[in-house]
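Summary for the lay section of the report: proteins are chains of building blocks that fold into shapes. Here we show the chain for Discoidin domain-containing protein and then a coded description of the shape we predicted for it.
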Amino acid sequence: MSTAICLALVWGVLGPAPGRAQEKVPLELKLPAPTLKGTPEDLPSGPNIEPLSDKPRPPFYVPKGVTNVALGKPVTASVQPFTGELSQITDGRKEAFDYDTVEFRRGTQWVQVDLGQPYRIYAIVMWHDHRYIQVFHDVIVQVSNDPEFKEGVITLFNNDTDNTSGQGVGTDREYFETHEGKIVDGKGVTARYVRCYTRGSSQSALNCWQEIEVYALPAS
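The coded shape description reads as follows.
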């Protein structure tokens, strides 16, 4: 029997060897309907803002088998919302309706999802408030295995370019809220907790959230 045939048989029985590159597939998202409010004429602009595109987002590739491990998981926050409930941020509903939006007071605020156990995170998808075409400020995404975020904090996204929110100077660009949400590359880091910051938007000083999804695989 040839060496090639032997290797093929071993592969079929044992599967991919440890450390072998995982098969990647496009991330499939269940997107909400676009807002019907239209695009304002006075959109913010500048070198730190991604231009609003009218084209579909390019595919984002993740390992085959990832699932949204944030669905139904508990959410805590820096302050309690004055509209909506924290549980709505992981309930799977993210339409451009008032009752699907959770609103918080002004200033830098965060929401945090407890995934229940460590996962290898490959994508975090966020919808802040796509009822309006707007830009949210100081969007920061961090993960950790420490619920207090005092140790082992990894920052995956930060567009706070002047450190107004005190989490370090960010190099990412601001972006417009649309029904597609924002995909943040999880880079395969292992963590149990996901914490996301905002500090108002171009539309309002209030902070809003509609949904957080975390696409991951078990860490073990």
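Put simply, here is one thing we learned. Residues 7 and 177 are 49 Å apart (CA to CA).
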